Sequence to fold (396 residues):
Amino acid sequence: VFADFLVLGGGIAGASAGYFLAESGRVMLLERESALGYHSTGRSAALFSEYYGGGVVRALTAASRAFFTGPPPGFDGPLLTPRSVLALCPAGSEDRFEAVLAEGLTAPVPVREIGAGEVRRYCPIVRPDYYSRAMLKPAAMDIDVDALHQGFARGIRARGGQVVTSAPVRELSRRGGLWHAVTGAGEFRAPVVVNAAGAWADEVAAMAGVPRTGLAALRRTAAIVDPPELPPPPEAARTVPGAAAEPGAAVARWPMVADVTETFYFKPESGGLLISPVDATPVPPGDARPDDLDVAVAAARVQACTTLVIRRIRSAWAGLRCSVPDGTPVIGEAPGAPGFFWLAALGGYGIQTAPAAGRLAAALAASGGVPGCLPPEVTLASLAPGRCQPAGSPAA
Ligand SMILES: Cc1cc2nc3c(=O)[nH]c(=O)nc-3n(C[C@H](O)[C@H](O)[C@H](O)COP(=O)(O)OP(=O)(O)OC[C@H]3O[C@@H](n4cnc5c(N)ncnc54)[C@H](O)[C@@H]3O)c2cc1C
Fold:
């Protein structure tokens, strides 16, 4: 099968690149699993935060905001809903708090320091003796990841492209000016490939004889626990006067709560609370599984910060956050490998940066140009493949 562009990997990165590439030619998106979003993309905390990550990541996130708030036709909206983040300073972390505060004050919607009264109003279970200072990151939002992902996939199909699942790429080589991908679902050819294989991106590169980027897959764990039983809100605060208070309704409006040293977070999710120990354990690429100890650490840290008593873990999972040592994504053409483009190393930011990162990768792969809407912090050098290459990296 011939195409103009082969996109390898159907997570949010591949789907976004494929969506924008489909404006320029026929896209074949090849995904190993039987459904999109089985790996990192389906396991995230789904947060959009312009306060999070290094300068390039924050700029890519800010450049994605307009897409999220006003998506083109074909996306079931809204893609963002208000959430906000409450960042607490445990005793001894004042320097870190100051640094986070100073940086947050430069965000498009600046953070603001808040007092104990406001902390209690935002999240009544936080123990006043846990923290010395607190700040609110008001513009953080929840992302409807599935709506974004499916919207991208729908857009690929609507523009004449194809999303091929159960198509593990097993061989990749360049012959006669075309990349040949041998998969479990047949052979595909195109002059351009985009490597969006998540944790497996270095393996895909090695398959093609392209130097690895030095990607590390870091496991992060999350679990859902029952929400606390809160006293019913006053009659006046109920949506339907006289009706019984909806259990969990107040909890659903809480912000994400985290400590500034990033040892845990919790946020409302699926009628309960999503908790994480903010772990980053290096593991080989694969189907990440939660470790009981990491789940227990998350529960202990959340209980130390709050009055919550965790009696039951409803569900737990783990996913891979993949990055190179400088923490910035890898986007661009591989040196010495014409037509081989990277869109990888998206760390803990792959969903919130997907519109801008996908658009940039697509523009580079389709025409070598850079989209005009990109902010000046986002330079091709800062994203260049090969900048963090491991010493003596084998070509294959
Ligand atoms: C617990 C957790 C919380 C997170 N929270 C957030 C958050 O709040 N906000 C945010 O923006 N990000 C968050 N992230 C990060 C985000 O999930 C990732 O950055 C993003 O999903 C990466 O997308 P991807 O498409 O690169 O990878 P993936 O979703 O892993 O997709 C890669 C795909 O490539 C496929 N593939 C691999 N090899 C082959 C092959 N040989 N042939 C065919 N297909 C192949 C895989 O099957 C996979 O589907 C979080 C991550 C975790 C684990």
Remarks:
- Residues 8-14, 30-33, 38-41, 43-47, 168-169, 196-200, 204, 220, 222, 319-321, 346-352 surround flavin-adenine dinucleotide (CB under 6 Å).
- The longest helix spans residues 55-69.
- The two ends are 26 Å apart (CA to CA).
- The first strand starts at residue 5 and ends at 8.
